[in-house]
Predict the 3D structure of the following.
Amino acid sequence: MSSVESLVEAIVDLDEQAALGRVGEALEAGVDPVEILERCRQGMSIVGERFEKGEFFLSEMIMAAEIFTQIADSVRPQLKRSVTGNVGKIVIGTVEGDVHDIGKNIAIALLEAEGFEVVDLGVDVPPNKFVEAIKEHEPDIVGMSSLLTVAIESTKQTVDAITEAGLRDRVRIIVGGGRMDEHARDYVKPDAATDNAATGVRLCKQLLRGAEA
Ligand code: B12
């Protein structure tokens, strides 16, 4: 089994030392840091499934989150900044009622590596805070992270608040997180949605070019 394959296993086993060890080995072997993060995301999905089935408790989800955060901290400096200067500005936050921020932070790291200027509003961000941030920072794109089914409603309310403030034509909206299936997209009506940060960066570039994403 290669380092990246056993990395998924180490995360699911909540074995912090083994996970960090595998990451170190993978980086040394020249594995793309984006692939390492993607593997970690797979591990986190399995942790989530176990929580759903009642095999893991909240404490185990918290532990997995701590392991992932440490991995992300060690991998982030390896993300090569492929562009100098700004390609565009994005205001990003996790929507109201949702405190998940690991995925958002990975998306931010990849966006910055690709030359985006990012304004991070944090987690549990109410719709009016997104609206104020658009007025203040005049971004090209607004990114929302939304991981909970119950947060689909606040994601929709955020898009509506932007529309009601007369700002919808000035920004493109992308939503990230695993809950954005076809129904949620039809309801929320973002310009793009993804459950993968690398795809998210590609979509953001398309949105900047004005292409349909
Ligand atoms: C870790 C975790 C937690 C941690 C979060 C720690 C933190 N600082 O983020 C803690 C323990 C706090 C937590 C709490 C809860 N959680 Co939780 N959690 C998870 C878990 C296991 C992993 C999430 C994660 O970090 N994944 C890794 C990252 C890298 O992946 P990602 O988030 O999908 O992000 C990627 C993309 O989506 C994308 N992306 C994300 N955001 C954005 C934004 C933009 C703009 C772009 C372009 C891209 C992008 O890029 C990322 C990298 O590729 C998931 C399981 C899962 N499958 O998601 C459950 C999960 C999301 N949690 C769940 C639940 C139920 C909860 C709780 C309600 C549990 C409880 N009873 O209290 C609370 C809710 C708290 C709240 N109000 O938000 C459920 C949600 C189910 C649902 N349908 O609503 C899940 C799916 C688990 C499950 N299968 O049951 N959780």
